[in-house]
Amino acid sequence: MPKTTEPVLKREAELRAAFWDQVRSFPDGQKIKNCLQCGTCTGTCPVSYTMDITPRETVALFRAGMLEEILHSRTIWICASCYSCTVRCPQGIRVTDTLYALKRLAMDKKIYPDNFPVYALSRAFVHNLYKYGRNFELGLGAAYFLKTNLMKAFGQAGFGIAMMSRGRLSLRPHTIKKIHEMRAIIDRANELEGV
Amino acid sequence: MEFAYYPGCSLEYTAKPYDQSVREVFRVLGIGLREIEDWNCCGATMYMSVNKLVAFSVSARNLAIAQKMGCDVCAPCSSCYTILRKTNQYVQWDPHAKSRINEALKAANLSYDAQVNVRHPLDILVNDVGVDTIAAKARYRLDGLRVACYYGCQIVRPNADFDDPDDPQTMDKLLAALGAEIVPYPDKVRCCGGMLMTTYEEVAQNLNHNLLRCADENGAEVIATVCPLCQMNLEAYQPQINQRYGSAYKMPVVYFTQLIGLALGIEPAKLGMDSLLVKLANPRLKAKKTAEVTA
Predict the structure, then answer these.
(1) What is the reported pLDDT for B151?
(2) Do the beta carbons of residue A34 and residue A68 sit within 8 Å?
């Protein structure tokens, strides 16, 4: 074996170990091993048309030792969590939860571009929760668009005004009374996870 | 009948009409709703994809408070509903996870052992109150209002226990009993894209365009929803969708509880009908004869 492939293989082995750890952490996670490659997941997925790797191909690539490619795909970020694949899989595989596992893995390993939309939104959301205990939609939107695409924020102005005039958008965040409780729980959970 | 009410963040503002109409309908039907005191965000789908233990612990704080209240939870938002149920499932499935979640909760002097069931208002109305009881209490009929019943994803999947994941019927039956004409809606469980409207706008617009077209082609004059995110995606982005696809949809998108409220004779303003972006111009409510009214 040529020397140059060694780091690649080592990296793949490390990622796979982390993947199996993730998969073991939810009910029926290991059923992924029973995939028949029938393609029901891809057929039922409302967004597979815009994925670079379809859900079925994800499993095929994994079996071929190409987990790193999967983690770089658009697929894991475009899943909208509709769970169609999960309820229709003839093998009882929790496809959506498996994609979540891949998402978490990609984030752990920092495999995403800097201004990457889903990651930016997730970060803004987590920050919001720690700060207020509830989601602050205007703040979330502002943080998100500042990070990703400022021009898009102006495109949302009409929508914001329409919602606000009907009392459906708040200018101020609501902080829960026992925010200290919430932060204590988050801090402790992070500590337990070794974050 | 009493429930611990978990409105969730969306129902505070963007889905205010949903909150108003759930509270009003439950009040008129005599179902108690006690809001979970100082509840926090359930963590939503996004949180779940970042760090699982944090997500489940945050979500479990609400369930722990509900457990102290001693009643089951009523969660109208589909996303909250799924997340809270998933937390339950996780606590029940994995003793190790349960102890870790409880260790995190201990930081706030709370504990949780999955004693609380999480229910959706549609489930409660159809299975606990009953379609016939609600129909008997209706003071008006939704006379021939052509409704497309849209269930979306997360109340029927992945852990549905009160309706079919492919062809759910509960909302159809309930609104039909109130006099609505339920149009065929083959896309009733197709996804609206959820948060993709923010992250991958063009994809979400395509999904919502399909949903609007399907409702329109089947003759619907209103779409009834069960979820704040579905409602907002379908309603608020119609101008952008029309621009992209050259369509001209002006489809009212309401919460199913708003239609029930109208039938029960609740004032439209109390149901948040004024807060809709696309108004339901002509609900065409015809008063029933008083003799038919039992409540």
Answers:
(1) 98
(2) no
The CA-atom distances, in angstroms, between A162 and each of A156, B7, B208 are: 10, 23, 19
What is the CATH number that goes with domain B131-292?
A: 3.40.50.11810
Q: What number is the ipTM of this complex?
A: 0.90
Residues of chain B with CATH 1.20.1050.140: 2-119
Residue A117 CA from chain centroid, whole number: 11
Task: Give me the CATH topology for the region B2-119.
Answer: Glutathione S-transferase Yfyf (Class Pi); Chain A, domain 2 (1.20.1050)
- Best mutation target among A77, A82, A170 (most B Cβ atoms within 10 Å) is A82
What is residue A150's predicted lDDT score, i.e. its pLDDT?
A: 63
The domain limits of chain A are 5-108, 117-193
- Is residue B88 within 8 Å of B116, Cβ to Cβ? yes
pLDDT band at A32 (very low <50, low <70, confident <90, very high): very high
The residue of chain B with its CA nearest to that of A75 is B200
- Any chain A CB within 8 A of the CB of B158? yes
Mutate one of B10, B16, B39, B51 to test the A interface: name it (highest A CB count within 10 A): B51
pLDDT per residue over A107-131, tens digit each? 888 887 666 777 778 888 888 899 9
B14 touches chain A (CB under 8 A): yes
Pick the CATH number of A5-108 from 1.25.40, 1.10.10, 1.10.1060, 2.70.170: 1.10.1060
Is A195 at the interface with chain B, CB within 8 A?
Answer: yes
Residues 6+ apart with CB under 8 A from A134: A128, A173, A174, A175, A176, B9, B12, B40, B41
